[in-house]
Amino acid sequence: MPTSAHSDRSVFKNIFSLISGRLFVSLSRLLIYLIIIRLTNAEIFGQYVVVMSIIYIGEWLMDFGFTDIAVRNISQDTSTRSKVLHAFSTIKIVQTVVAYCSAVGAIYLLGYTHLLPATFIGGVALAFFGAAQVYRVNFRLDMAMYKDMISESTGVLVSIILTLILALNGADVMALVACHTASRVIYFLGNAYFGHGAHKLAFSFRDTNNISSLIYQSAPLGFAGIMVACYDSIIPLVLSKMLSMEAVAAYSVAIRLVYPIVLVTQAINNVFYTLLTRFWALDKKLFTATQQNMVEIICVVACGFFCLVFSGSDFIISIFGETMTESAAILRALSWAILARAMTVAMSSPIIICGGQKKTMW
Length: 362
Description:
Layout: H1 5-39, H2 42-63, H3 66-76, H4 81-109, H5 116-141, H6 145-168, H7 173-195, H8 208-242, H9 245-282, H10 284-311, H11 313-318, H12 327-346, H13 348-353
C-alpha cells in the first residue's frame, strides 16, 4: 500500500477493528431477532421490525451525509476543525427534532397508532445517536475509528442482554424497542468517554457560513441516502399492510442475514475515506493507488461473504426454526442485490471527495 509503515499499521488496525466490530453488531442484531422470534411470536416480532424500520430511517436522517462532508472538509483544511465541528454539533439539534417528529409522524400516518408508545421511546435513541456522531467525526479524522466501534459494540451487547431478559419475561414491543434506546445511550456515553479530550460538545448558531456550507454540500448525499434507507425499510411496511406480520418476519430475517456484506464494505470504505481525502489534495497518484487498493479489498471481502451466504442459505435459515423456511429463497435472491450494492460502496468515496456528491442522486 502506498503509505508509510505507521500509516499502514493504522489503516489495517482500523480495518480489522471496524470489520470485526461491524460483524459483531450485525450478528448481534440478528441474534436479537432470533431471541424475539424464539421467545415471543411472529406477531410481536413483526411489530418490532416495523418500529425499528422507521427508527433506522430516522437514524439516517440524523446522519444525512453530514459526517462524510465534515470529515472531507476538515481533512482538506485542518485549520477549520473547531468551527466545522461546532457547526456540525449545531445542525444535530435541528436534525434530532426533524428525525423524531418524522418517525412518530410516519407511524401515525401508517395507521399503527398502537405502536406509537414504542416509537416515542425508540425516537429518544435518535438524540443520543446524533450526539455520538460528533465524536465519530473526530475518531475518523484521527484514524481512531476503533474507539467508536468499541462504544457501539458495548451498547449492542447490553441490548442483547436486556432483550433476552425481557423476552423471557414476556415483554411487549415497547420494552423490546427500549433495549435499542439503551444501546444508543451507552454508545454516546462510550464515545464521550473516549473523545472527551479531543472535543467537547459546543454549538454555534451564529456561524451561518459553516452551517449553510455543510447543509448545501451534504444535501445531495443526504437525499440519496434517504432514498436508500426508505427503500430498505418500505418493504417490511408494505408487507405488513398487504400480507401479515409473519411475512414481515420472513423477509426481515433474510435481509438481516445479507446486510453484513454492506456493513463490512462500508467499514472498509470509512477507514480509507480520511486517507483518500488527504491524498486528493496532496498527491493524485497516491490517491489513485490507494483507491485501487480499497476497491480490491472490498471486492474480495464482498464476494467471499456472498459465496458463504448464498451457498449456506438453507442451513443458516434452519437455525431460526421451521416457521422461517421460506426465508431461504428470499436470502438467495437478496444476496445478489446486496452484492451489487456493496460494489457501489467501493466507488462512493472518490465521488464525494472530488465534490461530485450531486451525482449520487442518480
